[in-house]
Amino acid sequence: MTTHALAHRPSRTGGIHTRTDVLTSAGTHIPAAEVHARRIAREAERWLALASERTRMKPGTLLAKALGACAFSVHRRASSLAVPSKLTGTSRHQPRLRTLAGDGARWAALDLDAVEDGLVVRHEGAPLGLVQSKHLGWVRPLVPFGLTVYLARVTGTEGTRRGYRLGCNVAFGHVGEALRRLADAAHGMSGDGAPTVPSVDGRSPLRLVVPGEARPVGIPVLPEYEALTGDREDVVLWRTCDGEAHASVPHAVRHSPTGIEWGYGGSGPADLARSVLLSLTDEETANALYHRFKREVVAAVPEDGGVLRAADVRVWVENERPLAGRGVTGRE
What is the C-alpha separation between 264 and 301, in angstroms, rounded? Predict the structure, then answer.
């Protein structure tokens, strides 16, 4: 696989290095390399705006990351902005990394899976490590819109006593394209007034779809101000100024003693799902259905939160109760 696998997808003209100068209205020919660099810079600016909203990284850190991604993408002649990074939790996967270091798998396409409170990166089904938590806020929303991840380099050296301690550098590719699709979905509307939802590789852009899940979300998440006009049993989800997640129902602790969360599949969302169902149904039903409720509803809640209508939750429960009666609980 060539080093350009990171960034280039075959064009309809058949070449990945198609280079065409641009003729401006003033009759000036702008070199293709300059046009490409300008486009990458604009995509880096849009990435910076998204990452600033979705992560807690300091402004200086984000700016340096954006500039580094811009330089990386231009140098690699990426067709769209690519953001270099490295994985955490690689100490458990040393044998696999050692194999990759020796078989020339650089720029191999990797897979992303939701697991617990993060995203695990795999190569041919074998885990390599986790996406750094500081990047999860901007990576998650772009995965359904075509963001991909590639193996950049296995790092590390052989120690004298502990043997290999290898790390893994990766690059998130097609970030600029994913940002454009995300913006198109946010502004597009269908004929009946519903947002248009373009599909990328068969995945819904509403959330990160865990393999094996194909059921659509059945409960709308309304803006927080809707809580002013709703039922007193409606569940309101909001964040404090420092990003801490809160809900208008008591936290029933089972999986996450540190608190609730939403927007993905993990222990915090699992506790929120169970807490919501306990507040609106009986304990037996809540325990049977909360894992499914987490995957189908809680995982789709926007980062900023919103309102889950009690009536909508009860309708969802009634539709799912027959499955629970047959022992289909979605336990993890």
Answer: 8
